[in-house]
Design goal:
15% of the residues lie in helices and 33% in strands. It is α+β, with helices and mostly antiparallel strands and 96 residues long. The longest helix is centred in the middle third of the chain and has 8 residues.
Length: 96
């Protein structure tokens, strides 16, 4: 698929979404649509659900979702957590 075609497609769509860990509701009433040519910045207080939202979009197994979630372009979404836990140690490159 060409970059022009990707930029015009909706790559993330959430309608009436909710996110929770176990029984604890973290986010509710999420309605979001992002096309391939858009960038997204999420701001908020610590513990407000920013990281949880990204993990839900990336389909982390420990997060439960409600509503309609469509993620159409996994290759166009990147996430690097603040502790670098998502990096594969075998793929790190060190310069000396």
């Amino acid at each position: 698929m060409t970059s022009k075609r990707i930029s015009q497609k909706v790559i993330v769509s959430i309608n009436g979404g909710g996110v929770k860990y176990g029984d604890k509701i973290i986010l509710e009433d999420i309605n979001l649509s992002i096309t391939g040519n858009e960038h997204l910045a999420i701001t908020g207080d610590n513990g407000s659900g920013k990281t949880t939202l990204f993990k839900a979009i990336l389909n982390y197994s420990q997060i439960s979702k409600t509503g309609v979630w469509n993620v159409l372009c996994w290759g166009g979404i990147g996430y690097l957590d603040q502790y670098y836990n998502s990096l594969d140690n075998k793929k790190r490159f060190y310069r000396r």
